[in-house]
Amino acid sequence: MLSKRTLAAFCPRRELSCGMSDTPEILLAHHLKALKLPTFLREHQKLARQCAAEGVDHVRYLARLVELIDRERRVVERRIKAAKFPAVKSLDSFDFAAIPKLNKIQVLELARCEWIGRRENVIALGPSGTGKTHVALGLGLAACQKGLSVGFTTAAALVSEMMEARDERRLLRLQKQMAGYKLLIIDELGFVPLSKTGAEPLFELISQRYERGSILIISNLPFDEWTETFDSERLTGALLDRLTHHVSILEMNGQSYRLAQSRARKVD
Predict the structure, then answer these.
(1) Which residue intervals of 84-131 are DSSP H helices?
(2) Which of 85, 92, 93, 219 could covalently link to 189 via disulfide, CB atoms 3.0 to 4.6 Å apart?
(3) What is the CA radius of gyration of the chain?
(4) Which structural domain, as residue segments, surrounds residue 16?
(5) Number of domains forming the structure of the chain
(6) Total-model pTM
(7) Does residue 54 sit within a domain?
C-alpha cells in the first residue's frame, strides 16, 4: 500500500481526496520535467481522475500510465523515422559554448515549436562545421516529440528528386507530400550551385509553403551571396522575400566546431 505522501505525488488532491497540499504536485511536475517525461506530466492528472471514477487501484493506474508513455514513445519513433534525419541529435548534446555568437535563449525558445504553429521560418547561417545541422536536427527532434510531422532533406537531393519526379509526371504528388510536413528542413543550401531548371521547382515549393507550413533552411552563405546558388537575382529576391517575411535567423559564425573537436582529440 502506498503512503499518503507517495499517493499524493501521483494523483490529483481533490479527485482522490489525498488530503495533502498542492506542494507534492508542484514537486512532481518539477521532477517529471527534469526526467523528461512529458507524457507523464501531461496525462497523469486526467488519467488519475478516470481511475478514481472507476475505482481503479494505484497499480492499475500506473500500468495504464506506462502504456500511454510506451504508446507515445512508439509514435514519436515513427515520426523520427519518417523524417529521414541523417542522425538523431538533441539540443542537450550541443555545445553552445563552442559557438558563443549563437543565441542560446533563442534556440531554446524555438525548441518549444510555437513558431511552427504560427507557420514561421528559421534560417541558420554560418560557415561549415559550426553546428548548424546539429541545431536543426535538435529542433526537428523537438518537433517530432511534440507531435508534429517533419521532413529532412538537402537542397541538392530535394532538387534532384523534384526534377526526376517532373520527368516521371509525379511532381504534383511529391509537392503534396512536401506540403504535408508541418516542418520541412532543407540542409546545405548554397553548397552546390543550382541550375535554372533546378532552382525553379525549389522556388515553387518554398512559395507553396509560404504562410502554410514552416521551413528551416541551413546555409553556409550570407544572404547577399545566395544569387550564386540560384543564378538569378530576380528568383533570389523573390525567394528571400517569402522566407524572411516571418523568420528567426540563427547567426552561427565562428571557428569550425568539428575542427576544434578534432584538434582536441589530437592533443589528448
Answers:
(1) 104-110, 114-117
(2) 219
(3) 23
(4) 8-81
(5) 2
(6) 0.78
(7) yes
Cell 544572404 found at? 223
Burial class (CB in 10 A: 0-12, 13-18, 19+), 247: middle
Which residues 6+ apart lie within 8 Å of 236 measured at CB? 226, 227, 229, 230
Examine the domain organization and report whether 228 and 174 are in the same domain.
yes
Residues 70 and 89 reside in one and the same domain? no
Per-residue pLDDT of the chain (268 residues; tens, 9 = 90+): 444 444 444 444 444 444 444 577 777 777 767 767 777 777 778 877 888 888 888 788 788 778 877 788 889 999 999 999 999 999 999 999 989 889 999 999 999 999 999 999 999 999 988 999 999 999 999 999 999 999 999 999 999 999 999 999 998 899 889 989 999 999 999 888 888 788 888 989 998 898 899 999 999 999 999 988 887 888 889 899 989 989 999 999 866 655 555 555 554 5
CA angle 44, 17, 37 (to 5 degrees): 15
- Nearest by Cα to 125 from 117, 111, 135: 135
Contact 188, 158 (CB under 8 A): no
Same domain, 236 and 185: yes
For 166-229, the DSSP string reads HHTT-HHHHHHHHHT-SEEEEEEETTS---HHHHHHHHHHHHHHTTTSEEEEEESS-GGGTHHH
* Beta pairing class for 214-219 and 121-125: parallel
